[in-house]
Amino acid sequence: MKLSLSWEVQRITTKFEFKIARSAESYYDVVIVKISDGEHTGYGEAAPNKRYHDSKDLVLQYLESMTADITALSVEDSQVRQAALEALFPDSYALQASLDMAFWDLYGKRLDKPLHDIFGAGTDLPVSSYTIGISELDMIPVKLEEATPYPILKIKLGTPNDQAIMDTIRKHTDKVIRVDANEGWKTVDEAKRHIEWLAGENVEFIEQPMPADQLDDIAKLHDWSPLPVVADENSVRPEDVPALAGVYHGINIKLMKCGGLTNARKMIALAQKYGMDLMMGCMVESSVGISAAAQLGGFMRWLDLDGNVLIANDPYVGVGNEAGKLILGNEPGMGVRPR
Fold first, then answer.
1. How far apart are CA 50 and CA 34, in angstroms?
2. Residues 17 and 51 in one domain
3. In a shared domain, residues 37 and 91
């Protein structure tokens, strides 16, 4: 059946300003793509990230100029398709991800099976964290109130104010915390000081403590650290994983970095080969992107799939989130639909 491609830009606004060590945003423009065979429609989402030199404009430029190349891709052969996506769009990982998930969604609908069933991932998912971005101290109690139902918090650090942020949080809650420094600590000594202190603060792990280009320095934390150290900005594509063994205890997989579900499955297999823990994360995304990532959630030790609950105007309905417990349905494909 001949395929057709369409897309739309959706501006999703965050409930609070979303601030990390290198940026602060109150809205994001995502691109929803749709691939149809006339009977079924597969959905995908591109949430481009400046950290990886990607943008909405680049995604739209590619979609407009290369529609015929996209609709000629295989629905059934994901490996051939992924190789073609990487050749066609080498500098837009988010576009690769959106198209790959749309093709997978279409494939699942043709088979009348949910993707988690096709992948063998199951529906027993670990509890997802709820992210609190870097905040002015007087805003932290407000954000903690919003996060009341969630038993696990992910806290963005990597600033000169880290101690005050954590002290303020601990005045209000003793919940388990996961810390993401987003490359914010610049030396081994600085990272060690923070990790040693955080180990006594009911923290579960530390994500990307130092800049990605300081891999040799990060390796010095591996055997010493009292907390697991998890790669994020170092864990982008499947080819990155082998070099992270012995440097990090685990990797964070994000569809918008790795290029979609096909590459995420490769990263899962590689991490398992090298004995590394698995985490599935996200950007700020709608329920389209989050529902796609959740299809692989059963393989993970940790989940950070809260992008859709951090926004105020999700245009789609998909995977449920009940106090961090993700609820996967039995709908075919990814189980998403317009709101």
1. 24
2. yes
3. yes
What is the rounded distance in angstroms from the CA atom of residue 81 to the CA atom of residue 86? Answer: 9
- CATH number for 27: 3.30.390.10
CATH number, position 176? 3.20.20.120
pLDDT at 221: 97
When computed from its CA atoms, the radius of gyration of the chain, rounded to whole angstroms, is 19
Asked if residues 126 and 303 have their Cβ atoms less than 8 Å apart, the reply is yes
Using CA atoms, how far apart are residues 203 and 174, in angstroms rounded to an integer?
Answer: 10
Answer yes or no: are the C-beta atoms of 179 and 155 closer than 8 Å. yes
By CB atoms closer than 10 A (0-12, 13-18, 19+), residue 11 is: exposed
Nearest to 327 by CA among 105, 127, 130: 127
Phi, psi of 172 (to 5 degrees): -110, -25
Q: In which domain, by residue range, is 153 found?
A: 117-338
CA distance 157 to 134: 6
DSSP conformation letters of 114-151: BHHHHHT--S--PPBPEEE-S--GGGHHHHHHHTTT-S
Whole-number pLDDT of residue 21: 61
Cβ-based burial of 39 (10 A; exposed 0-12, middle 13-18, buried ≥19): exposed
Are residues 244 and 234 in contact, defined by beta-carbon separation less than 8 angstroms?
yes
Residues 42/12, Cβ–Cβ less than 8 Å? no
Give the pTM: 0.95
Three-state secondary structure call for residue 196:
helix
Q: How far apart are CA 111 and CA 329, in angstroms?
A: 16
Enumerate residue ranges in the chain where pLDDT < 70.
19-24
Number of Cβ within a 10 Å radius of residue 299: 21
Residue 229 region by backbone torsions, left for phi larger than 0, else alpha for psi between -120 and 50, else beta: beta
Tens of pLDDT, residue by residue over 121-150, are 999 999 999 999 888 899 999 999 999 999
